[in-house]
Every structure is written in structure tokens, then in C-alpha cells.
Amino acid sequence: QVQLVQSGAEVKKPGASVKVSCKASGYTFINYYMHWVRQAPGQGLEWMGKINPSVNTTSYAQKFQGRVTLTRDTSTSTVSMEMSSLRSEDTAVYYCATVIPPAWGQGTLVTVSS
Amino acid sequence: ENVLTQSPGTLSLSPGERATLSCRASQSVTSSYLVWHQQKPGQAPRLLIYGASSRATGIPDRFSGSGSGTDFTLTISRLEPEDFAVYYCQQFGSPPYTFGQGTKLEIK
Questions:
Q1: Nearest CB to B44: which of A50, A63, A105?
Q2: Choosing among A36, A99, A108, which should be mutated to test the B contact, i.e. which has the most B CBs within 10 A?
Q3: pLDDT per residue over B53-100, tens digit each?
Q4: Could you say which of A2, A81, A85, B99 would form a disulfide bridge with A45 (CB–CB 3.0 to 4.6 Å)?
Q5: Between A and B, how many residue pairs show a Cβ–Cβ distance under 8 A?
């Protein structure tokens, strides 16, 4: 079955960077976009960006442009999301997700605190 | 960006009742690119409906989606206890792929 398995929780200091990975299985990885979504505590869902694993093209929400980078490794069917210049407002659960086939990762809590 | 507004913010109903959730877009959305997600407390979201009206694999047929243009609806025909959750619509028509703010479906 389709599975997206994310890396574990992270605690970072303001100004640092974080990298969260998402390993896909159960489908042909390069055929479908991977999206990243975040959810601050008690808040709704926010779309961050997407990557086309086949041609390695990316698209980001303007809010995250220049601060978020999505990369992929086709040999391991893994997509990574790196965010730099972290601030307290970036404390959230970060999810990877595909629409086709429908799947969400389990989420990775990133806590930014001094 | 295409702003999605969901209503009501909270819906209080009893098991067995029918739920109707609305999602209105500020710009027209091609139906193929409107989806609904369900999220239970402490869990990742789950995609229920894609293409505005197609159920994802394994989703019970009490869930149905409809609509076009700027107005979309998620209907749950007879509520089961496990359906009480937060529901989000999302559009993939034009980036950024915005979400609605969510409708919380709670037990009355």
C-alpha cells in the first residue's frame, strides 16, 4: 500500500535550519508530485510547495520562497524539505502528501525555541 | 491567491443525521482540482474526495462531494461516531494550493 514515512521530531534554535525527509513506497515515486503542508499548533493547514520528482522542478508558496528548498533522491524515493532562518512562528507539524495516489505522511513536529 | 471560505465554522449534529459542509472559492476552480480532507485530533489528514466528487479508495459511500465553479459541498449522508472531525477543502487549480480554514463537525 502507499506509504509516506517522515523523519522524527526536531528542536531547533531561532536562526537555524531544519531538514525533514519523507520516504515514499507502494507507488511509482517519479510519476507523482509530492507536496509539503504545515500546521501550526491549533491552526489549519498551510500549503508550502511541491516537487515533481521526475524532472526535479519545484514550486513554492510566495511566503516560503527563498527560505524553503525541496529536493528529491530517486534512488531512495525520498523527498526532503529544508527550511532556513527558523523563527518561533515556524513551530508546527510538517507533512508530506500526495494527491494521486492519496497519501499523507505521519507528520514531523518542528519546534523552534531558544 | 484563491481564497477558500468554509462554512459553517462549527457544525453540531447527532449520529445518524445528515451533514452538509460548504466551500466557496474567491476564484473559479476547475472541478478536477478540488479535494476534501478529514483530520481527526492528533492524526494526519486523510484525503476523502478528489476531483470534487470522486471518493478516494476505502472511503465509505456515505461521503459525497459536489459542486462546480466557486461553490462546492461535502455531504455525509448519515453520520457515524467516527465522522466527527475537522474537514478541509483544498484547491489545486492554481498555486498556491490553498486550503479552507476548516469546518469542525462536533457531536451535539
A1: A105
A2: A99
A3: 999 999 999 999 999 999 999 999 999 999 999 999 999 999 999 999
A4: B99
A5: 50
